[in-house]
Structures are given as structure tokens and as C-alpha cells.
Amino acid sequence: MTVLVTGGAGYIGSHAIIELLQNGYNVVALDNLSNSDKESIKKVKEITGKNFSFYQYDLLDYGKMRSLFEKYNFDSVIHFAGLKAVGESVELPIDYYYNNVSGTINLCRVMDEFEVTKLVFSSSATVYGDPKTVPIYETFPTSATNPYGRTKLIIEEILKDLSYSNMKWSIAILRYFNPIGAHHSGRIGENPKGEPNNLMPYITQVAVGKREKLKIFGNDYNTHDGTGVRDYIHVVDLVKGHLKALEYINKNTGVEIFNLGTGKGYSVLDLVKTFSKVTSKSIPYEIVERRAGDIAVCYANSDKAREVLDWSAVKKLEDMCKDAWKWQVENPNGYKSEQ
Ligand code: NAD
Ligand code: UFG
After folding, report:
1. DSSP state of 156
2. Other C-beta atoms within 10 Å of 289: how many?
3. What is the pLDDT of residue 290?
4. HSE-CB of 224 using CA atoms within 13 angstroms
5. Which of 50, 164, 176, 246 shows the smallest number of beta carbons within 10 Å?
6. pLDDT tier at 338 (50, 70, 90 boundaries)?
């Protein structure tokens, strides 16, 4: 079976390709490298000892997308490609709508033309906005608090309309909670450009000496220690959920939404303490103002994924910290370290 992976050079896409190759899938990857490095593709080939084709194509380039579908007989598509920085999306909303929404429309048009109708889409827990209660079920109301989140919501609606229009479509919408960690080899991982927006890469950069201290955004939330609580999930567990979703859409048509989380919430301070414990690195921090748009608590109910997909996250917070640290310490400058 041949799977097209969009955004294949990115953080989650590169981990997904390893899992696909190790499970007997043929992979073709595309990425415009706007937020990634081709080195990740090389590393994935080295880790797996397997080859696959990579195209530096943009989803917005319809002609190139068509040429790819003419060349290969895809069975399904896993669609990771997109811009994902919340703050940047507030500054550059049109770029986000154009890239994420128009890019996905282009992908769906070409899939439709070539009758490739099985799609796994990367959505996000951000579509739940500020939930009234936790854990969060797939049936909870959705809302967006920034343009990035709105692109995910719009795409989800487009995919639902597509599947209602024609039952030949088989679509799994996966709402990720907070993916962190890295492949256990330490050879691929999260590689943010500039100052990290997300907590784990910030912590690892402090630990490796690239940043002086962590800024914790608020300690006056209604949580056990006042800092924000999230559902951190190991990226390898997360990508395994995609293989289960692929199996599911191979057998079922229509559209289904699944939360991919662990069901456990940890605070910023829990993560800092666990990281320090497993790595023996102290993480200096200061408490600063809350970050605009942040919510107090967010964690999943993932019963649906367990029951329908036979998938559950198994890795612990300790594993996530260990693996994130191995990647950081062995590649202090990310993919630039070995070039
Ligand atoms: P990433 O930035 O590492 O990977 C996305 C990849 O898509 C990048 O390599 C980028 O170069 C590529 N890309 C962007 N626009 C493109 C286009 N028009 N054509 C071709 N390639 C393009 O991000 P990630 O963390 O791997 O996220 C993958 C997906 O999961 C994204 O859709 C993201 O919104 C979603 N997601 C991520 C998180 C998270 O915390 N990492 C959480 C929820 C959802
Ligand atoms: N935090 C800090 N300091 C930092 C970075 C983060 O204290 O330097 C705190 C935040 O306030 C929050 C927690 O750490 O309480 C997690 O923050 P992240 O930025 O790592 O993650 P978010 O939950 O804010 O958002 C992430 C992605 C979104 C995605 C969401 C759900 O950035 O795109 O997870 O999947 F939608």
C-alpha cells in the first residue's frame, strides 16, 4: 500500500514515516520545507534502512500535485502539511487561511480527480476552545480563538461536507492534544525555528544552555499548582494512532473524529520537575504574566480511539522527557548540528 504523506519532513510527519515504513507501507513524502529541514528525510532513511521518494512540493502548486498523483497510485493520504504557530497566525491570518485551507482544498481536488478517497487529517485540541469541563470528548462544542485554530475548524467542516457529498470518501480527523518527545534513537525530533513557542522545546533549550531560563506563563490558574495543565502525548504513540486510523479508513467509509491524547493532565511545573528528575538537569524558571489565549486545563477522553481504533497511548511523561532530551543534547542545533 502506498501512502502519500504531506508535511513529511516536519516533526510529526517524519516520525509517522518511520512507523509506516516499519509496518510495510510504501511512502511518498512531500513538503515545501517552509518549517522543516530535508535532513529529517535523510535521518528517517538511515533509521529505517528503507528508501522512499521525497518531493519538495507545495500543496498550493496544483500542477505539481497533479503530476505526483499521475506518477503514483496512492491508496491513501496522511495530511500533516500546514502552518501551526498560533501567535504567527494572529499576525498573518491570510497566510494561514491560504496555506492551510487552500492547500487542503487543492489536495482534496486532486485526490477526487484521481479517485484517492482515503484521508487522515491532523486536527488539534485547539478546536475545543476553552472547554467547560474536562476530560474533553469528541462531541464537545467547538470554537476557535485564533486564525490557526479556525483553519483547523474550517478544514474539518470541509472534510465533513466532502464525505456527506459522496460516500466513497473515508476520512479520519485526528485531534491531537500536546505531542512532545522524539524517536528513541535521538536522531529526529522537534526542530523549532527561532525561539520555541511550545513548552517542551523551550525546556530542552534551557537545559542544553541555549536559553537562560523558562518563562512560565502564569501560576494563578485554577489547577493543583496554579500553572496550566495539558495532555502531553509522546509523538511515537501519536503516530501509531495514524496507522490505526489508516486501517480503520481502509474498512469504513464516511468521516470520523478521534481525540489522540493520554487522558492525563500535567501542569507546567509537573513537566519541569519530571524533566529535571529524569535528566538530572535543573531548569531555572520565572513566573511571568499569563499568555494571551491560553486556557487553564485541557486533557482528552480518548475512549473512542481505544474502542474503535484499538489505540491507546502507552508512553509515560518520563519517556517523553528522556526522548526529548536525547534529541536535544545529541543535536544541540537541531538538524543543523550534523550538516
Ligand atoms: P511541522 O511544522 O513540523 O510540520 C508541518 C510540515 O508541513 C512542515 O514540514 C512544513 O514545511 C510543511 N508545510 C506547511 N505548509 C505546506 C505546504 N503548503 N505545502 C507543503 N508542505 C507544507 O508541524 P508538526 O508539529 O509536525 O504538525 C503536523 C500537523 O499536525 C500540522 O497540521 C499541525 O497543525 C498539526 N498539529 C500539531 C500539533 C503540535 O503541537 N505539534 C498539535 C496539533 C495539531
Ligand atoms: N508554557 C509556558 N512557557 C512557555 C511555553 C508554554 O509556561 O514558554 C505553558 C503554556 O502556558 C501552557 C503549557 O505550557 O500552559 C503548554 O503550552 P504549549 O505552547 O506547549 O502548548 P499549547 O497547549 O498552548 O498548544 C499546543 C499547540 C497548539 C495546539 C494545542 C493542542 O501549540 O497548536 O497544543 O494540540 F492546538
Report:
1. H
2. 9
3. 97
4. 8
5. 164
6. low
Q: Which residue in 148, 232, 248, 335 is the catalytic one?
A: 148
State the Cα–Cα distance between residues 69 and 111, nearest whole angstrom. Answer: 8
- pLDDT tens digit string along 45-55? 999 999 999 99
Pocket test for ligand 1, best of 18, 84, 122, 155 (most atoms within 8 A of CB): 84
Provide the residue count of the chain: 339
Tell me, yes or no, if 148 is annotated catalytic: yes
Q: What does the pLDDT read at residue 339?
A: 52
C-alpha dihedral, 233 to 98 to 52 to 174, nearest 10°: 30
Q: Give the Cα separation of 111 and 133 in Å (integer).
A: 38
Atom of ligand 1 nearest to the CA of 13: 26
Q: Do residues 211 and 266 lie in contact, with contact meaning Cβ atoms separated by under 8 Å?
A: no
For 300-334, what is each residue's pLDDT tens digit? 999 999 999 999 999 999 999 999 999 999 999 99
Backbone dihedral angles phi then psi of residue 271, each to the nearest 5 degrees: -70, -45
| Nearest to 32, CA basis, from 121, 93, 100, 114 | 100
CA dihedral 24→25→28→32, nearest 10 degrees, is -100
Of 217, 231, 262, best ligand 2 pocket probe by most atoms within 8 Å of the beta carbon: 217
On the question of pLDDT at 72 being above 80, the answer is yes
CA separation (Å) from 131 to 137, 174, 196, 227? 10, 18, 25, 17
Question: What single letter denotes the amino acid at residue 149?
Answer: G
Q: Could you report the per-residue pLDDT of 233-266, keeping only the tens digit for each? A: 999 999 999 999 999 999 999 999 999 999 999 9
Q: Domain map of the chain by residue range?
A: 2-338
Express the helix, strand and coil content of the chain in percent, nearest 5 each.
Answer: 40, 20, 40
The class that CATH gives domain 2-338 is: alpha beta
